[in-house]
Amino acid sequence: MKIGILSRNANLYSTRRLIEACEARGHEYKIIDALRCYMNINSTQPSIHLMGEDLVGFDAVIPRIGASVTFYGCAVLRQFEMLGIYTVNDSVAISRSRDKLRSLQLLSRKNIGMPITGFASKPGDIKDLLSMVGGTPVVIKLLEGTQGIGVVLAETRKAAESVIEAFMGLKANIMVQEYIKEAGGADIRCFVIGDKVIAAMKRQALPGEFRSNLHRGGSASLVRITPEERKTAVAAAKAMGLHVAGVDLLRSERGPLVMEVNSSPGLEGIETATGKDVASLVIEHIEKIVSSPRTRTRVKSQ
After folding, report:
1. Per the database record, which ranges form the ATP-grasp domain (predicted)?
2. Predicted confidence (pLDDT) per residue in 62-78, tens digit
3. Is there a single domain that holds both residue 102 and residue 210?
4. Which range marks the domain in which residue 230 is found?
5. Are 198 and 216 members of one domain?
6. DSSP per-residue letters across the chain
7. Is residue 6 part of a domain?
8. Residue 212 marked as a ligand binder
9. Is 128 labelled as part of a ligand binding site?
10. Residue 298 pLDDT more than 50?
């Protein structure tokens, strides 16, 4: 097969591992920087070009689109979809997952457990908003934040009101969530491929820190998840329409709660913590899908 890897940096761990997996399984690959692509959009012969080269002949594309380039990256991915090429995660699913508010609304519609979340645009609604989510402490999140950036824990009502007013004064879009104290600064990252959780790790925040992101200094370790957690992770990925996803869960007194669904989950933390060759499992998934006549027909008809 010929596989395109949409990535801006071939030296990133996740990109390198996908390259190694392609080589080990005998596939041709090409690293494609989405921001260097340009498109010819027409009704007869649409195309995608990269530095003068017409990108043709791909069997599949793996999108590794950073949050900062979601709009253009998804536009390029849509063009591949228009050409009938299988994309591991499609542009619509990625756009859904990147919109934190919309993704939570989709999870809510599917009755998937998640922290109680409030959203408002006016300072006058803050007091009622805090009551809606169960009072303080609360977690205040920027909708555009990634890797734990723009996430604040407000332990008192006064602090929460001040932080929310400050964000609103900057015209920033935020959401307010209940704080799950019993999680103890830890979450579970479930790596979902297709309809299975193929690996899971526990991420633990540093002492005095509530954000467990590895980019914030958190540690990762192998964890055994429950059948309910496995079921919740798969359901959350399906709700977004993602075939490959990192689903972040909190362990609460009322069961697993989905915190976020990531459409471009990193491979370094999960492979290091679990010892699993996740990159090869992604390529194996592509092999199964692309070789299926039924999938071929569905992709070509998009």
Report:
1. 104-287
2. 999 988 899 999 999 99
3. yes
4. 96-113+182-263
5. yes
6. -EEEEE-S-TTSHHHHHHHHHHHHTT-EEEEE-GGGEEEE--SS--EEEETTEE----SEEEE---GGGHHHHHHHHHHHHHTT-EESS-HHHHHHHH-HHHHHHHHHHTT-----EE--S-GGGHHHHHHHTTSSSEEEEETT--TTTTEEEE-SHHHHHHHHHHHHHTT--EEEEE--GGGTTEEEEEEEETTEEEEEEEEEPPTT-----GGGT-EEEE-PPPHHHHHHHHHHHHHHT-SEEEEEEEEETTEEEEEEEESS--SHHHHHHH---HHHHHHHHHHHHHT-HHHHHHHHT-
7. yes
8. yes
9. no
10. no
The annotation status of 111 as a binding-site residue, yes or no, is: no
Does 262 appear as a known binding residue?
yes
Q: Look-up: residue for tokens 């890897």?
A: 5
Same domain? 103 vs 190:
yes
**pLDDT class for 145, splitting at 50, 70, 90?**
low
Quickly tell me which residue has 């993602």 as its tokens: 242
Q: Report whether 213 belongs to an annotated binding site.
A: yes
Domain count, the chain: 3
Average pLDDT, the chain: 90
Tell me, yes or no, whether 159 and 57 share the same domain: no
90 is in an annotated binding site: no
Would you say 260 is a known binding-site residue?
Answer: yes
Residue 274 lies in a domain: no
pTM score: 0.89
Taking only the tens place, the pLDDT of each residue in 244-268 is: 999 999 999 999 999 999 999 999 9
The answer to whether residue 270 sits within a structural domain is no
